[in-house]
């Protein structure tokens, strides 16, 4: 099925972006995960699809890089409840929107507040992921000055990791969680990963809010460095696009003394020469964001070339990625839910290992890219990435949306309650089939495969809200 044919099938399916089940699931998880964890020190991350913990969030410590996404999900719903109340999928005559909005806002605050001290950390580059998903809406929706102060402090902490010799921000201090890797000396190594591109948004935002231009300058220099070190020109072409296609290296180790590249590696992908699909997605989103802030055409070209290669690899994937599911009138799905690494061997053709989070991160980046291209008059390319983004998310919803739905009720005491639509069938996250890491050398504690994942849900929600901002909605 072509993209144009698939687009005709999308309108009904994309309504799932605004279903009551999403609101109900997040509300329930927000309450249940606070039991014996209030104020929270553990934050939801993965949801196993099998085993004794099937369907229930597993948590990580507050200092883990994913802690900001769960409160970010809650604040995504808070934002919708204020700007686009119909998008929550809730019947206001049955469940009071005011009561729901108040409950979500209280939960968001409860989950957000304990993360504030993380803004002072100078030992991590992930502060954009940690801070922005929830502190930005707190500032923009409620004029919460404390949240803005946290954002600026986090940006200053991140900026402290910038090195003018490398012209980049250090991602990791060490890399020693693979069986064959022991990179521990910061004097001899300077590790930068492609994921870092999505933390540039924090620097640009704080620069605009505070007037500290050095933050934005560092973000531009970092982004330019990675154009040379992490992006690989590919020989392939795609109809309708005349520029270069780019794949990505996950990890590059520089010499901090000379600023030159020592080696390329991967931590979460298949190999140093492969294209890890979520790394490619981070690149699309990151460079689209950097172009939107800076206006430098080199970043727009990079985002387009990365998007084109992402689409190319999904379109050229083996036929086993397509499956036929009941209820879809014989339509095959899965073509646009990428393999966890585009170059990894497929070990189980009947159920190839995928990463839904890569799909929605890339799609979110393509929406930003589409808006940016429309803004500079490139309407054909703008429509190209808008269409591609919606096709990807439709495929994700068809294949990966949890079938264990939830609904909202109001008790006799007027309290909001959540129930399973099918008794005893529940699953905490919205999406299934994400893969954090499947690298053979990675330590087991880092190898989560084929599960629900909090940042897959976060970027799905962000995608849905972005469609609403663009005037495109399906509820």
UniProtKB/TrEMBL annotation:
Entry annotated with the keyword DNA damage: no
Signal peptide boundaries: none
Origin: domain of life: Eukaryota
GO molecular function list: chondroitin hydrolase activity
Matching InterPro entries: 6-hairpin_glycosidase_sf, 6hp_glycosidase-like_sf, UG_Glycosaminoglycan_Hydrolase
Keyword 4Fe-4S applies: no
Gene Ontology biological-process entries: polysaccharide catabolic process
SUPFAM superfamilies, per database record: Six-hairpin glycosidases (SSF48208)
Keyword terms, alphabetized: Hydrolase
Family in the record: Belongs to the glycosyl hydrolase 88 family.
Name of protein: Six-hairpin glycosidase
Organism: Venustampulla echinocandica
């Amino acid at each position: 099925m072509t993209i144009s044919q698939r687009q005709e099938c999308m309108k009904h399916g994309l309504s799932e972006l605004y279903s009551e089940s999403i609101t109900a699931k997040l509300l329930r998880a927000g309450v249940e995960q606070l039991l014996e964890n209030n104020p929270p020190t553990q934050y939801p991350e993965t949801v196993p699809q099998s085993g004794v913990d099937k369907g229930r969030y597993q948590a990580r410590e507050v200092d883990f890089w994913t802690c900001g996404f769960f409160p970010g999900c809650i604040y995504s719903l808070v934002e919708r409840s204020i700007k686009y109340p119909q998008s929550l999928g809730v019947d206001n005559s049955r469940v009071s929107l005011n009561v729901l909005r108040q409950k979500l806002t209280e939960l968001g605050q409860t989950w957000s507040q304990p993360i504030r001290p993380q803004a002072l950390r100078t030992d991590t580059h992930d502060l954009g992921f940690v801070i922005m998903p929830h502190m930005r809406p707190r500032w923009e929706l409620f004029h919460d000055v404390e949240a803005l102060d946290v954002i600026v402090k986090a940006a200053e902490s991140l900026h402290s990791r910038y090195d003018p010799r490398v012209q980049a921000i250090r991602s990791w201090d060490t890399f020693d969680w693979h069986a064959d890797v022991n990179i521990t000396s910061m004097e001899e190594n300077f590790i930068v990963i492609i994921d870092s591109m999505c933390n540039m948004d924090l620097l640009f935002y704080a620069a605009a809010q505070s007037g500290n231009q050095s933050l934005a300058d560092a973000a531009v220099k970092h982004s330019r460095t990675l154009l040379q070190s992490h992006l690989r020109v590919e020989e392939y072409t795609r109809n309708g696009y005349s520029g270069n296609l780019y794949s990505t290296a996950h990890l590059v180790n520089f010499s901090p003394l000379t600023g030159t590249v020592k080696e390329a590696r991967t931590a979460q992908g298949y190999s140093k020469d492969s294209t890890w699909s979520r790394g490619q997605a981070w690149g699309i989103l990151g460079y689209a964001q950097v172009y939107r802030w800076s206006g430098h055409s080199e970043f727009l070209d990079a985002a387009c070339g990365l998007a084109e290669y992402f689409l190319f690899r999904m379109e050229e994937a083996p036929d086993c990625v397509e499956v036929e599911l009941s209820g879809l009138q014989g339509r095959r799905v899965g073509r646009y839910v990428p393999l966890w690494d585009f170059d990894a061997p497929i070990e189980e053709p009947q159920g190839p290992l995928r990463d839904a989070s890569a799909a929605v991160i890339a799609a979110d980046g393509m929406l930003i890219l589409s808006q940016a291209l429309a803004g500079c008059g490139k309407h054909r390319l703008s429509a190209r990435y808008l269409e591609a983004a919606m096709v990807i998310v439709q495929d994700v919803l068809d294949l990966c949306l949890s079938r264990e739905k939830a609904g909202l009720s109001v008790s006799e005491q007027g309290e909001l309650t959540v129930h399973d639509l099918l008794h005893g069938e529940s699953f905490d996250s919205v999406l299934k089939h994400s893969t954090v890491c499947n690298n053979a050398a990675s330590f087991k504690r880092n190898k989560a495969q084929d599960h629900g994942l909090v940042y897959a849900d976060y970027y799905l929600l962000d995608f849905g809200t972005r469609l609403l901002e663009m005037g495109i909605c399906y509820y």
